[in-house]
Amino acid sequence: MHGPAAHGWLLVALCAATGAYCLLRMRSQVEEQRRAAGGEALMGFGMAAMAMPAAVFTPPSWAWPVYAAVFGAAALHALWSARSGAHHLHHLVGAGAMVYMAVTMAASPGHGGGHGGSGVPLVTGTLLLYFTGYVLLSGVRLVPVAVSLPTGGRAVAWGDRPELARACRLTMGIAMVAMLMTL
After folding, report:
1. pLDDT tens digits, residue range 25-81?
2. Which of 3, 2, 12, 4 is nearest to 171 (CA)?
3. How far apart, in whole angstroms, are the C-alpha atoms of residue 20 and residue 115?
4. How far apart are CA 149 and CA 79, in angstroms?
5. Least enclosed by CB within 10 Å: which of 34, 104, 119, 168?
6. How far apart are the first and last CA of the chain?
């Protein structure tokens, strides 16, 4: 990612922590939580790797096509899964944005590790508008509401807490906006 190293490290930490929590959510008793958590963990760790400051780590030239392939496969999976729920459309947009950023990085000057490039302004602007709207909507959804989960009288597990899942999605949305702004 292009920009001050401190910002890159903050994004790395936030995205890696989000990815780690999403891995914990994969142990949930609720099948829908597990299903969504896997894609979100991939996004969190992928965004953490892309946000690594260029002064610390310059990815080899083959890394960007690998990112594009991995997130292209995630986009296809999200497209297939979208048949059962609208949230998978968001995963499709997120994976598509990751493919777009990887392709932009691969095409940037100094191809061998171009952190920061110049994407297509219309595509970048559209993605920025989408993720800004997503962040605002996710922020509103964090407002406390009474939640009744079928827990059978036991405490709600960490992986089943909807407010934490929403906070993770909000964090990844903010990170996506920050990363798109650097293109």
Report:
1. 888 887 777 878 888 999 999 999 998 887 778 888 899 999 999 999 999 998 988
2. 12
3. 24
4. 28
5. 34
6. 8
